[in-house]
Amino acid sequence: RSFIESLPKAELHAHLNGSIPIETLQELAKEYTIDSDDGMSSTLPPDIQTGLARLQSGPTLYDINSFFPLFPAIYFLTSTPRTLARATHAVLDSFLGPTPSPSESTGQLPPSSPQCTYLELRTTPRATTALTFASYLDVVLAEIELYPPEKAALIVSIDRRMTVDVVKEIVKLTIDLKEQGRRVVGVDLCGDPLAGNMHEFAPHFKRAKEAGLGITLHIAETVTNPASETLHFLSWSPDRLGHATFLNEDAKAIVMRDNICVEICLTSNLLCKTVSTLEEHHIRHYLRNNHTIAICTDDTLPFRNSLPGEYALLLATPPLGLGLSEAEVERVAKMGMSARFGCGSGPGPSDDAVTVPDT
Ligand code: 5GP
């Protein structure tokens, strides 16, 4: 096995519906039938067909705003318990390898090579004609719980476009699930980076934190996110931050002081054009300061990336990659493992800063 394959790696920032293998989505499109009494098959609506064609050809993203319109086509195909379970199963399989089966106890290698050792998969509960928020989470958790706790857990995403009543309902559901012993370990804030009144969401994230759930927030993702919002989010005492691309000096100082892990998604940032080159990427700041980071994929479906591929970017010679040594990459992987909500020991920097070569 290669160096990257053999490293224990945690994937802590992967969105379920953004990580469905394209083959699975194509199968779901082919099998699409109206869930009606007569079970008659139906063709996909034209806008959904167009959306799928974009995903199949590898979408060109002009900026982050052309990313969110990719999701309606995906959601159309994952809106029943059966199709959501299929999609979740395929995502888990693509990250972790197949569910543990008797063949593993005979020492045979699983057929596909896992991308990571541990996965915290996140998803936004959706109510559809066939699903409630509760049944959505139950379907996803049932698939996650086929893996042992040291391999997989769920983070429940709150979308900034939700109403505050829905946020309240979903946070309550998430806390109830945790109290029932289900495999839910955290709450995330995601969705259109400029939507919503985040002051209204604050008490609900506070409740989630008090209930022992990990908190991760998509923060300062675009240059237009106001600094006041970023500082407000940091007052929620988050455990991890998604992207954190445009932190000002005050915000950076808090992140460093409180040792808040930053989830780094290199390919996602480059393709969504929130960062122009690896040379300018904020990962360099955290590496130099030996600050806890977790290397993550974000959405493997539109970005066509993988966790080993993201680690390969750390190793590759500049300007293609960051030019880190194997020992440095190993330390970065350990940081990611230490920042798990599920069975982590809590983030904590180790030894020296990483030497980032100047390009
Ligand atoms: P889901 O939560 O439905 O399983 O995964 C897809 C959803 O995750 C998208 O509709 C979007 O709300 C959110 N998402 C995926 N990637 C990103 C990202 O890079 N930034 C933000 N802010 N949200 C994202």
Describe the fold and architecture.
The chain is of the alpha/beta class and 359 residues long. It has one domain (3-33, 55-98, 114-338): Alpha-Beta Barrel (TIM Barrel), CATH 3.20.20.140. The chain is built from 16 helices and 8 strands. The protein is globular, with a radius of gyration of 20 Å. The site of guanosine-5'-monophosphate has 17 residues, from strand 3. This is Adenosine deaminase domain-containing protein.
Terminal-residue CA separation: 30 Å
Could you tell me the radius of gyration in angstroms? 20 Å
Mean pLDDT: 90
Query: Which range best describes the helical content: under 10%, 10-25%, 25-40%, 40-55%, 55-70% or over 70%?
Result: 40-55%
Task: Describe the sheet with the most strands.
Answer: 8 strands, parallel
CATH homologous superfamily title:
Metal-dependent hydrolases
- The total number of structural domains is 1
CATH topology name, in short, is TIM Barrel
Query: What is the H/E order?
Result: HEHHHHHEHEHEHEHEHEHHEHHH
How many strands appear in the DSSP assignment? 8
Ligands in the model, by name, code or SMILES, are:
guanosine-5'-monophosphate
Annotated CATH architecture: Alpha-Beta Barrel
Alpha-beta content class: alpha/beta
> What is the number of helices?
16
